[in-house]
Each structure stands twice: as structure tokens, then as C-alpha cells.
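Translate structure to sequence.
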């Protein structure tokens, strides 16, 4: 125990122990449920500030982890209502990106985008069940629902996530579709799937814009006036026969296959 902490009241020391024990659980939950790592940090701080106020007011939860997760869930829910940003808007941080190899299933970017399409309560219940491995009864206590309601919520969330992952383009497929669209090779249904993906994925939307901008820049680069030195193959000075002669020392040789 640090000298500073040893001088704090017993209640503060007890709260610090609870904080150390459960802060990572709260942060990881917020990290998956919310769009960005910064959001997760903010929510973690707010969660423990709210918990500290309640703790100072005399509340002493028996199940500390569940109590804290219930506070975190409510704070996350309020943040989700306040913002229109989806989970898919941000670039995935390196640690998460390295966690799931591409060849073993959907990429972390695809998971983040698909989670962003779920209802918030579905997303929260799914994270608690699949990521944290909590039993249904514990999730029900945290979310203030019956066990049967939580089972239904998780079932719907699993189905919705599967439909989002299987019924839409992956980021890799979207990248190829963007290229095909530039070449005019996308059919109507393919264009619809691509537009759906681009509306949900900022990274791929940025890629599509950059590809279009790149094409425009290349075309503009090529649209330059002809140098005056190339305005004619022949000189303007007439020779003895009254005609000009080639400007170049030797005519360009045609390439042979």
C-alpha cells in the first residue's frame, strides 16, 4: 500500500481494493460495447466515479462485480443514446486487430461493424454471455431482466450478428467491389451490397472516396497541353523543295513484339 493510500479513510482504501480488482472487467466490457478505446476509458472513469459516490453514501454491495457492471451498463446505455456514431466508425486498435487471424473467421473490423448494427441491449447481453462467459442469471441481475428474457435477448443477438456477418460484404470483399465498381463491372445487387457496407464502414467508405479521387487526379494529370516542341513533326522552315524537314535527329523506332 502506498503511503498516500495508507493515510486515506478505511472506506477509500476498501474502494481502491475493489477498483483494482474489477477495473479491467469494466474496461473490457465498455471496449467491446462502445465505439472507441477512448469511449471505454471515459466510461470506466464515469462508472467508478458513480460507484464511489454510492460507496461514500454507505452502499456496500455483496456482489461487487455485478454491481459495478450494472453501473457500467447504464452509463454505456446513456452514452449509446447520446451519440450517433457506430462501433464500425473507428479504426480498430492494434491489440484487438491482432487477436483474431483473418483466416479463422470474420476480421475484428467485420465483428465491430456487425456489433454496431445490433440493438444496444442485444449487444450488451451478447458481450456478457459470449465474451465474459457470464451465466444467464447473472446477466439478468445486471440488466434488471428475467432469466427467460435474457435467453431470448442473447438468442436474437446471436441470430442478428450471424445475419450481419453472413448477409453483407466483408471489408476485403468490399475493397474488391470498389475496384470492380470503378471498372463498371458491378451488377445492381452487388452495388446494393456495397453501398450497404459503405454506409456502415467508415474505413471502406474512405477507401472508396480515395479510389475515386485517385482516378480523378490521374485523369487531370494526363490532361496537360501539348508542348510547343511537339506541335508538328516537321520544322516550319522550308527546305530547298519548299517543305520542312523532321525536327528529330531520327524518327522514333516502332517497338517490335
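Result:
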Amino acid at each position: 500500500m502506498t503511503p498516500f493510500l495508507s493515510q486515506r479513510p478505511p472506506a477509500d482504501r476498501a474502494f481502491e481494493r475493489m477498483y483494482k480488482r474489477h477495473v479491467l472487467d469494466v474496461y473490457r466490457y465498455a471496449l467491446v460495447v462502445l465505439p472507441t478505446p477512448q469511449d471505454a476509458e471515459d466510461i470506466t472513469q464515469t462508472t467508478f466515479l458513480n460507484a464511489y459516490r454510492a460507496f461514500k453514501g454507505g452502499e456496500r454491495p455483496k456482489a461487487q462485480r455485478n454491481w459495478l457492471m450494472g453501473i457500467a451498463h447504464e452509463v454505456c446505455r446513456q452514452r449509446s443514446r447520446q451519440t450517433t456514431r457506430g462501433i464500425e466508425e473507428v479504426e480498430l486498435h492494434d491489440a484487438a486487430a491482432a487477436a483474431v487471424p483473418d483466416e479463422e473467421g470474420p476480421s475484428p473490423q467485420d465483428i465491430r461493424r456487425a456489433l454496431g448494427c445490433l440493438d444496444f441491449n442485444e449487444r450488451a447481453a451478447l458481450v456478457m454471455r459470449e465474451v465474459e462467459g457470464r451465466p444467464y442469471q447473472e446477466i439478468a441481475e445486471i440488466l434488471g431482466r428475467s432469466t427467460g428474457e435474457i435467453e431470448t435477448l442473447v438468442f436474437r443477438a446471436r441470430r442478428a450478428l450471424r445475419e450481419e456477418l453472413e448477409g453483407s460484404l466483408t471489408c476485403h470483399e468490399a475493397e474488391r467491389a470498389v475496384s470492380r465498381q470503378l471498372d463498371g463491372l458491378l451488377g445492381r445487387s452487388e452495388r446494393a451490397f456495397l453501398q450497404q457496407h459503405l454506409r456502415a464502414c467508415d474505413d471502406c467508405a474512405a477507401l472508396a472516396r480515395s479510389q475515386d479521387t485517385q482516378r480523378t487526379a490521374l485523369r487531370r494529370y494526363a490532361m496537360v497541353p501539348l508542348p510547343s516542341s511537339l506541335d508538328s513533326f516537321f520544322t516550319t522552315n522550308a527546305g530547298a523543295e519548299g517543305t520542312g524537314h523532321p525536327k528529330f535527329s531520327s524518327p522514333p523506332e516502332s517497338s517490335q513484339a
